[in-house]
């Protein structure tokens, strides 16, 4: 199996952070998976395209980057079954399907990353999520060295969640995803921005609109390093929301099952005055407060400090804890955000702007920095 020692990961993560791993493996077949050394006892991380990954320390653990490729299509009377290797690029898959006249994935266009990572957090956008079309997931288990097929129900998809982040976490890797895409198709225009389209719009027109909307709102990681939405939208109880709403009547909110309410993390960050905030080489995007951007830092800890600062400010104002969606990878493997130390905390100064605790006086970095 192809593998490399002392591998530089800077071009393998969309935050463009410098990190090295002692070894990286690129398994591309079942036989190669079975050759993987006993890694479960050691620290290791499965890497797709690194668009939802933050290397927090200069050293990363051993990495496995699956290289399963290929797209197979089986046509049935009323639907298509599409099986895709984990290493295929998600957006390329969406374009490929539309070119073949297979519709349904157009709302998920331009989501960066690999197909293998898509079920892990049940990727979603513009009113559609992977779970809507996922039929099954092929998953290799490290301990038994066997392949398993998990049905959609067994994957236990939820908002940015699945069994691969829960019970099956770190116990194996996804090699293939199978989607079921019905031939009977209707545009899903429920989401704001798409409702401007005519109801008889084609799938290609929907995809073009999704791409236009995303490109206008989200920075391209190739031009400005980022990992998309950094925090998940927080979910609170209806009782807690009622209290918040008294103080903030215009607070956006989305009712969920079980008497819970989803809040908009971007709105909370913006209300905390942090949209466009910049601290040296890292900051909050000017148009999209949920996206943290790296203007030129090599150090993952800088992003952690910024995220902790945002978390503190939002908690102070709303008593709501923002939880990152991005995965935090240390030399010892993945860690929870709360367990990470804030090595260079960002502090407020007396006039409400923020300065680096270690920077020279007057280096105010709120909003329009000259960096
Ligand atoms: C600009 C931008 C916009 C984004 N917009 C969206 C959006 O609209 N909706 C959305 O849901 N996400 C969005 N994201 C997040 C990201 O695109 C998804 O999380 C994507 O699925 C990550 O794919 P990846 O291959 O880069 O995963 P990585 O970052 O490499 O890994 C992410 C997680 O998946 C695991 N993983 C990766 N491959 C496998 C595998 N084969 N088997 C098992 N586990 C695996 C990793 O261990 C890790 O836990 C955005 C990111 C960016 C940069």
Automatic annotation (TrEMBL):
Catalytic function, reaction form: UDP-N-acetyl-alpha-D-muramate + NADP(+) = UDP-N-acetyl-3-O-(1-carboxyvinyl)-alpha-D-glucosamine + NADPH + H(+)
PROSITE patterns given in the database record: FAD_PCMH
InterPro entries documented for this protein: FAD-bd_PCMH, FAD-bd_PCMH-like_sf, FAD-bd_PCMH_sub1, FAD-bd_PCMH_sub2, MurB, MurB_C, MurB_C_sf, Oxid_FAD_bind_N
One Pfam family of this chain: FAD_binding_4
Chief location: cytoplasm
Pathway: Cell wall biogenesis; peptidoglycan biosynthesis
TM ranges: none
Domain of life: Bacteria
Cofactor: FAD
UniProt subcellular location: Cytoplasm
Domain FAD-binding PCMH-type, residue spans: 17-184
EC code: 1.3.1.98
Active site (catalytic residues): 160, 229 (proton donor), 325
PANTHER family to which the protein is assigned, alphabetical: UDP-N-ACETYLENOLPYRUVOYLGLUCOSAMINE REDUCTASE
Family: Belongs to the MurB family.
Protein name: UDP-N-acetylenolpyruvoylglucosamine reductase
